Each structure stands twice: as C-alpha cells, then as structure tokens.
Amino acid sequence: MIxxxxxxxxFSLFEALRALKEAVGPQDVRDSNIIxxxxxxxxIERLRNACHTVPFLAERRLVLVEGLLSQFQQAPRSSRxxxxxxxxxxxxxxxxxxxxxxKAIPPTTDVVFVDGALQRENALLEVLGPLARVRTFPSLRxxxxxxxxxxxxxxxxxxxxxxxxxxxxxxxxxxxxxMDNELEKLALFCMGxxxxxxxxxxxxxxxxEANIFAAVDAVLEGNPSLGVNLVHRLMEEGQGATAILAMxxxxxxxxxxxxxxxxxxxxxxxxxxxLGLLSEYPLRKTLEQASRYPPKRLAxxxxxxxxxxxxxxxxQLEEGLALDLLITEARPASG
Length: 335
What we know:
By secondary structure, this protein is α/β, with parallel strands linked by helices.
C-alpha cells in the first residue's frame, strides 16, 4: 500500500504515522522493518532495495520517504521574477522511474511519503495522487481547534471553562505540539477541577507574550503606571529583568521590521515566516501594534531598552529601578 501524508499540522500527521508503525508488528521487530529515507539522500536504487526486502519476523515492512515531494515544489512566481540568476537546484529523482518502482512493490511493503505543506502545483503530487491513499493535515481553524482541545483534554482528566478555552486557543494558536504540552501542564496543575481563565494566565507560556504586548502598548501609549504594573507582574512570575528587556527588545524589533515589510507589500503569511511568528495570535498582535506606532517612537523605545540593559549589566542601576526608569522615560512628550 502507498500512502501520502502531508500538511502543516505535523502533530496529527505524526500520530497517523505512529499508527502505521505500530501495525508493522511488535516493538522488538519494528527497528528491523521500518526504513527511513530522507529527501536529499533518496535514490531510485535505495528505494527499490528498501521496498523489495522481505520483512524480518513480521508480516509487513514500512518504508518512510520524507521530504521528497517538497523537492518538486516550484518557487513562487514573485520569487522567480526577482531572481535574476537563480541558483541551479539539484534534480529530484526521476518521477517515471519512481512510478515504476512503486507499481512493483510487493504486498508486504507499505510506502509512506511524508511532507509538510505543499503547493497544488507539485509535479510529483500529481503523479502519486492516483496511486496513494492521500491524507492532508492542514492547520486547524479556530472552531476546529476548540473541538480538538476539548477532545484531547478528556483523556487527560481535564476540563476547561468557556473563558479558559477561548484564552488558551487565542494564546497558543494552531501549534498542536505546544497545545498538547499546555494541556498536560494544566491537567497536572488543576488536579481534576475545571481550568479557569486565571489558570491560563498563570501557566500557559504564551500568556507571557500577551503581557509583553500589553506592556509595549502601555509604554508607547504613555501609560507608565500600567507598564510598570505589567512588567512587575512578569518579574513576580519569575522572569528576570534581563529576560524582560530581551522580550521587549525583540517585540519592538519585530514592530520595526513588520512596518517595513508592510510598506513593501509583503504578505501577512510571509511576514510571519520572516519574523518566526507562526502562530496566529502573536502575528496578529504584532501587525496591529506595528500599524499604530510611528517608526520614530519605536526607534526611541529600542534605544531606551538598550540603555537600561547597559545600566543593569554595569551595575549603575538595580534591575527593578532600571525597568521603572525605562518605562517612565519612554513616555511621549506632551504637545
């Protein structure tokens, strides 16, 4: 049997893949009967040998082919227009020869092609599609993600209030690896009682990002009392002053870069990739903030952050005082 698994939701993809691995046989024979080939190292001869080897003390053999389809991706049209002399790309395996290998695989072999998100215009996808059982794993949308969280929480003995569910989904986004980890922490912390909104704020890693967004807003909008409050709350949660400064500097840098990319017409998804913001919440908040503040304000705040960092590291100011002074000095001039 030939399978084709691809998509941005790698968590669900690998869970589906684990089920196929378990079907190979007992744990002690799986290593001998599961072969893993990765894109750059795949040759037709290696694939043929892997597919035609007889299973060892098991009824089936599994061949995982990872990253091959992405070698057949075409560069976006805009990228092709910008590149005056694109670098030559290594030729993928010959699709006709690959098709010949796959049509001759014995019934005891399963071949699984595994990849991330793919474009529709993928030459190998068109070739393999009719031969394979195809499963796509797109990132879950908001309503789907809520359903997934509810279902995933039950076996962990965890329930969430409506407020907690909304907050968790908004903060963590569609990264199911991170979401599952947050659910594990909440289940251990709540010990059978429903998780509430305050539990999300206390435990969920992304909640600290939310406080940083709020602190940056407070500073840039000239609300030093709120800014001091939010920063001190982060310190009470165990964040050191240097770490808070790094988070502030990172966010302000993101705002400066995001403004420049928006002005250049870069798409929202591409901005997220370039900034490393792959979840919906931090990317949305960054773009919202970037649209509200002029570059001069952002640059001035960045300089004050660096000044506070130097003052702490050279012993000129105590950590808490340096942060308070930073927030006060960042207040915009009246008039």
